[in-house]
Specification:
Radius of gyration: 39 Å
Largest sheet: 6 strands, mixed
Helix content: 25-40%
CATH architecture of the domain at 105-380: 3-Layer(aba) Sandwich
Strand content: 15-25%
Oligomer: single chain
Order of helices and strands: HHEEEHHEHEEEEHHHEHEEEHEEHHHH
CATH superfamily of the domain at 105-380: LCP protein
Distance between the termini: 182 Å
CATH class of the domain at 105-380: Alpha Beta
Strand order of the largest sheet: 9-4-1-2-3-10
């Protein structure tokens, strides 16, 4: 074997491998044309936007959360452990309350209980509104429930604005108020929103004030609350502080009520008009720059069971859905705003708003009912006046056992016994004649007047509103002996306080200390005794 040959072949093999390991020279890249550069930029922008949409969509699922309707299973809050409920029977309508929840709900239809609480006025819920928002049809309706609305409660002053504080405020107070509103309109709203009144003024300040037509001259001073209201009548620009003055105004220093001479109805109308003016400005595009300030105001002054994502979803639905101010409607609960009923704790008539059950049912089914079946009178528990002036309720017995007996007692004049004369004037006796009983010369006391209603300070026996107005059936007058306590027995209610005071002359008369409340008697109409 030739070694040179072997070495020669081996060298070729190695050379071949070396040649295989070498790379061909790279060709220089051609520069991009202007069109290719533009296309590349467009491509990058499209990719970025697609990624941004994905991120926004993912975040929106957490930021914008559709409210979930709560299922209310909480028991009715207790009012008192010491008050015995009345044994009176409720109104019998023959109707059975429909199960609203079982019938199903309207799609994307939400209801809210909006409460305005004035910390400067003791924390009472003086502004109560039921709000419905129909997302599908972009309609928003709000119904004001007057603060003096009479409700079926076990305490004496049965006004709806006292319910929240009486139950202790907080969650318990809201549960009690929600239950009371349910009795009034036939269903419990889905969510609640409690707003401190001060927040409205801060809100108006944040958006730069609001233009508003002030209906009357407002001049009122209350140093105890550091409240001073001085605003002239007419169209003007109101700042946040002036907005609060208009909302709180009730009467002038001279006692003139202005447009509020129909109870609370005029004040409610002004509040609704002012809130509408604020809402119109909030829906303007320029408000976007104030969103951070509005969020701070909301967090500091609003309590609600809605989450921030829920509120953002509702706001987005209103903005994107095109909610317009002409689709926002304010109404006031149908009622008799000039009603009254006897108060046994203060001894006089107290003004009340008596709801009209039939009208409420019609209004609720038209603009507020979130269910697929109609609300009926059987779903309500409305307090109304009977034909004799006492009160009853459409859905249950009156819970205050003292209310009607005290009212009946206020109608009867108190009876005072005449003084007993022990001596008979000598000149009036004839010689040899035996005086007959009752024929002595003692002054003759006439019987007390037979009227059943004092002339001052008490309501007449007949109701102030007809059953047709209040939606209640007419009822016969109950017998006085079964409803009113006997005059000789201790009474749990006082006689009218507006009649002149007369000291009882008999030791048998009941003293004020026996019942803890002053007893008053009307003046007796007596003839002048013959001499």
């Amino acid at each position: 074997m030739n070694p040179e040959k072997e070495n020669r072949s081996g060298g070729k093999h190695l050379a071949k491998k070396e040649d295989q390991g070498r790379h061909p020279p790279r060709q220089a890249k051609k520069p991009l044309t202007s069109r290719q550069k533009v296309l590349r930029v467009v491509y990058l922008i499209v990719v970025f936007l697609a990624a941004l949409v994905v991120v926004v969509f993912a975040v929106s699922r957490f930021l914008f959360v559709k409210p979930e309707i709560p299922v209310r299973t909480d028991p009715q809050p207790e009012e008192s452990n010491t008050v015995t409920p009345s044994t009176e029977s409720p109104e019998i309508t023959g109707d059975e309350a429909p199960d609203l929840a079982a019938a199903g709900r309207k799609e994307d239809y939400y209801t809210f209980l909006l409460v305005g609480r004035d910390t400067g006025g003791g924390g009472n819920t003086d502004t109560i509104m039921v709000v419905s928002y129909d997302v599908k049809n972009q309609e928003l309706n709000a119904m004001s429930i007057p603060r003096d609305t009479i409700v079926n409660k076990s305490w004496d002053i049965k006004k709806i604005n006292s319910v929240y504080n009486y139950a202790g405020g907080g969650d318990k107070g809201m549960a009690a108020l929600m239950d009371t509103v349910s009795d009034t309109i036939g269903f419990a709203p889905d969510f609640h929103i409690v707003v401190e009144w001060e927040a409205v003024g801060k809100l108006a300040t944040a958006i730069g004030g609001v233009d508003f037509e002030v209906p009357v001259n407002m001049n009122y001073d209350d140093p105890t609350q550091d409240l001073h209201i001085h605003i002239n009548k007419g169209f003007q620009h109101l700042d946040g502080e002036q907005v609060m003055q208009v909302l709180r105004f009730r009467k002038n220093n001279n006692g003139a009520p202005g447009i509020y001479n129909q109870g609370d109805i005029g004040r409610i109308q002004v509040q609704q008009d002012l809130l509408m003016a604020i809402a119109e400005k909030l829906l303007q595009p320029s408000v976007v720059s104030h969103i951070p300030d509005l969020v701070d105001i909301f967090m500091e002054n609003v309590e609600t069971d809605l989450t921030i994502p829920n509120l953002l979803w509702l706001a987005k639905s209103a903005i994107q859905g095109g909610l317009r101010t002409d689709s926002v409607n304010f109404v006031t609960m149908p009622a008799n705003y000039n009603g009254y009923f006897w108060s046994y704790s203060i001894g006089r008539n107290e003004s009340y708003v008596f709801p009209y059950a039939n009208d409420i049912v019609e209004l609720v089914n038209q603009d507020f009912n979130p269910y697929l079946t109609d609300v009926t009178r059987a779903n309500l528990d409305i307090v109304y006046k009977k034909s004799d002036g006492s009160i009853a309720a459409t859905g249950s017995a009156i819970r205050d056992s003292r209310a009607n007996p005290a009212y009946y007692a206020s109608l009867r004049p108190a009876v005072s016994e005449s003084p007993t004369e022990t001596e008979t004037p000598a000149e009036t006796a004839s010689p040899g004649e035996s005086p007959l009983p009752g024929a002595s010369g003692a002054p003759t006391e006439t019987a007390p007047p037979t009227e059943t209603s004092p002339s001052t300070g008490t309501p007449p026996p007949a109701g102030t509103e007809s059953p047709g107005e209040s939606g209640a059936p007419e009822e016969s007058t109950p017998p006085a002996e079964t409803q009113a306590p006997e005059s000789g027995a201790p009474s749990e209610a006082p006689a009218p306080s507006q009649s002149p005071v007369e000291t009882p002359s008999s030791g048998e008369a009941q003293s004020p200390g026996d019942i803890g409340i002053p007893v008053f008697t009307p003046p007796l109409i007596a003839e002048t005794p013959a001499i």
